[in-house]
User: Fold this.
Amino acid sequence: MTRSSFASLLLALPLSLLVGCGGGGSGSSGNSTSSGEPQILLSSSSLTFTGVAINSISAAQTVTVKNSGDSSLTLTSIVLNDTTNYALTNSCGTTLAAGATCNLSVVFQPKSTATLNSTIRITDNSQNVSGNFQDITLSSTSTAATTPVATLSASSLSFSTTVVNNSSSLNLTLSNTGTSTTPLTVSSVALSGTNSNMFSTTNTCTAGLAAAGTCTITVKFTPTAAATYTGTLTVTDNSNGVSGSTQTVSLTGTGTTTAPTVVYKLYELPDPGAGLPGGGMTTALYALVDNATSTIDMSMYALQDSTMLSKMVAACGRGVIVRAALDGRNEKSNNASAFSTLNSTTNCSAVYANTAFQAFHEKSMIVDKSTLVLMSGNLQSQYYSTTRDYFMVFNDAVDITAAEATFNMDFAAGTTASGTTGTSDLSYQPSAGTDLIWSPTTAKQAMEDIINNATTTLVVENEELTSTPTYIMSDLESACNRGVDVKILIENEDGTYTKNLNIVKAGGCTNNIHVYTDSNGFYIHAKAVVADYGLSTQKVYMGSINYSDASMTQNRELGMYVTDQASVSLIYTNFIADYNGAAQF
Assistant:
C-alpha cells in the first residue's frame, strides 16, 4: 500500500478508533476528563488594563467560562477582590451545563494613580472536587486626570426614621480628584424631586477646589408627616473640563409621629456575672452577631477574639454582609489573622484603615443598621478578665445613621487585601448624631468642655494622660483651683505618665490622684468621665477617646455623652471602687 493510500484509510476511520493510538501508557492527558466530571475552562486567566485615567471607566474586557466536561458544573462563588477600582458583570449564575458557556465582564475604574492589581476567584466543583478554585488576575495602571474631577463620597443618602417636624442631618464630601491646575468650580448645589421641600442643604463649596481639595455638603431632612420621602441632590460644576457637568445623589427619609424608644444597656469588664448590673458582655455581643440578618459593620483597633471572629464568619455563611475596618498601623500584626480570614470568606471583607490617621482607635459595631455598640475596649479575649472597660449597646437611630455614614467613608478609604488604598477621608466631618463625639473633629473641644464646665465634682478614669501642649493638665489644674472636687484614676504602667501627673499634682490637684501599675494585675483601659454627678449640670462621657493630644486630634476615635441614668450610676459606682482600690500617687 502506498503512503497516500494509507493516509486516506486513516482519514476514513472513526475518531473513536484513533484516540490513544499514539504511544504511551493508559489514563487521561491534556484537558480530557473521565466520564461524569465537570471541567472548567477559561478563555483567559488574566486581564490587563493600561493608561486609564482616574475616575474614568475603561472599555470592558471579557473572560468566557466554559464547562468542557460532561456533567453540570456548580459555581459556588465568583468574587471580585477589589470592588472599588473594578466592576464585574457576571452572567454565569450558579450552575453551568456540560458544554455551556457564560461571560465575566470587567471594567477598570481607578480611584488613584497607582498600579492597581486584583483577582477574581471562581470557586466550583471542577473534576468533581468541591472547593476547587481558579483565579483570574487583573493587572492595571492608571494615569492622572488632566482636568478637575468631581468625586462625591456617596451616591445616595438614607436618613434614619425622623420624628415629624424634627430634623436629621448627613454630610457629603466633594473632592477634586483631578491633577489639573484648573480648579473644580461648583456653580450650584440644588434639590429636586416631588418631595424636595422635605430636604434642605448647606455647603462650604463656594471657593474653587484645587487638586486634592475638598468641601462639605450637609443635607437636612425635616419630615412634615408620617411618610417616606425622596429627593435628588444635584451638584453642577466643571468636572472633567465640561461646564455644566452634574453629579447626583438620591435622598430617602421616613417621617414618624411616634418617637422611637431609645434603649441603652451598658456592659462592663471584668464581667461581674450574668444577671448583675453590667454583666454578660460577651454573651450579649455574641448574640447580636448570631442574630444579625443583613449587615455587620465593625470598626476595631484590635480584633483577636476568636469566638467573635468565628461568629462573624458564620454570619457571612448565612448571607449577612460583614465588613470590618481594622487598625493597620499599631495593631496590624494582631489583626492579621482576622484580616486574612474575613477576606477569604464569601460575604465577609476587611480593610486596614486609612493610614492618614495616626491610629484607627475607634471600637464600634453596627448590626443590621439598627443596633450600635460603642466600646472603650477592644475585642481581645485575652484581656477580658483583667481590664476595666465599657460596652454600650443602644438603638438611637440618629446616632446609628451618623456612625454608619462615617464607617462607609472610613471603609472606602482603607487598604484592601489586594493592597489597593482608597482616598483619604480626613476632611470628612462626621455627624454628631444625638450624642456622639468624634476624633479628630470634635473630640478636643468636647473633652475639654466636660472638665471646664464642671462646677462641683469631676471624676476621670482614663488609660492615658498625655498632651503637647499641656492643655489637659492645665484644664484639670484650673478645675482643682476653682474648688471642684477632682478625682483622677490613671493606668501608670511603667511610670509612663509620672511626669504629667506630677504637673497636675503641683498645679493644685494635690491628694486626689490614684494609679494602677503592672503589679496590680488590674488594667485601667476605660475612658470615662463624670462631671457634677447627680446634679442638673451632670455631664458624662464614655468611649475610645483618651485624654491625649493624639487621641483627640490625630486618631479616628468615637465616644458619646451618656444620658441614661442607670449607665451613669454604673460608671460612677465602678469609678469609686476602682479609685479606692488603687494606690495614691
Remarks:
- The radius of gyration is 29 Å.
- Confidence is low (pLDDT under 50) at residues 1-34.
